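Example record used in the benchmark description.
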Amino acid sequence: MNIIPHYLRLSFGRMLVIGIAAGLPFAAQAGEPAGAKRIESSVVVSYADLDLANPAGARTLYARLKRASAKACGHQPPPLSLRAAKEYQDCYGSALNKAVKRVNSQQLYALHAEQERQMTLG
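Model output (structure tokens):
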């Protein structure tokens, strides 16, 4: 289900729509019915005001993409809900990876790779 019309996405070259199909955290419990519903969410991120060739512009956009990915995936579940927490992290990581890829900026790729490397080591 696309919330943003196709023509709108194409007419704004420096806007990005982050779309993610994410399961509700409480629907991920054991015994979930086979036909459990998923929620699809889209978040528009504008970066027309940024120069992505500049590291500061890439950092600003990356922060926006992280917030948008978190918003698209819903509220972060409590830490004791391990399965829901894993699903949230998977959703967030997938949304952020897709958004970075769609922007197609070398500065943004480099920043994202560095952040991922730090998360792996940390």
